[in-house]
Amino acid sequence: MKAIRLHQVDGPKSLVYEDTPKPIPKGNQVLVQVYATAITPTEFDWYPTFHTPEGGIRPFPIILGHEFSGVVEAIGSDSRQANGC
Fold first, then answer.
1. Could you give phi then psi for residue 42, rounded to 5 degrees?
2. What is the DSSP letter of 40?
3. Which residues have C-beta within 8 Å of that of residue 23, sequence separation ≥ 6?
4. How confident is the model at residue 79 (pLDDT cuts 50, 70, 90)?
5. pLDDT confidence bin for 65, thresholds 50/70/90
6. Per the domain annotation, does 47 fall within a domain?
7. Is the Cα dihedral 70, 74, 79, 84 positive or negative?
8. 18 lies in which domain range?
9. Residue 18 parent element (H or E)
10. Number of folded domains in the chain?
11. Is the pLDDT of residue 82 over 60?
């Protein structure tokens, strides 16, 4: 798959459009085929961009864009598909 990834803390000039392995959803995760996304300037200074929910350092490369639209492509083994959605 293709993705725009950040390889270092250096602002928008560090974004690279490249091939990346397609993730496999685990547990309660879902895989979304993204049709459109936006990267906002604040994402380059936002604490969750560079840190995990537990507070650790997030490893590079990082895929930005928490605002997106698309369709669910796959669900993890602990996820339940809703009827009628």
1. -70, -20
2. -
3. 31
4. confident
5. confident
6. yes
7. positive
8. 2-75
9. strand 15-19
10. 1
11. no
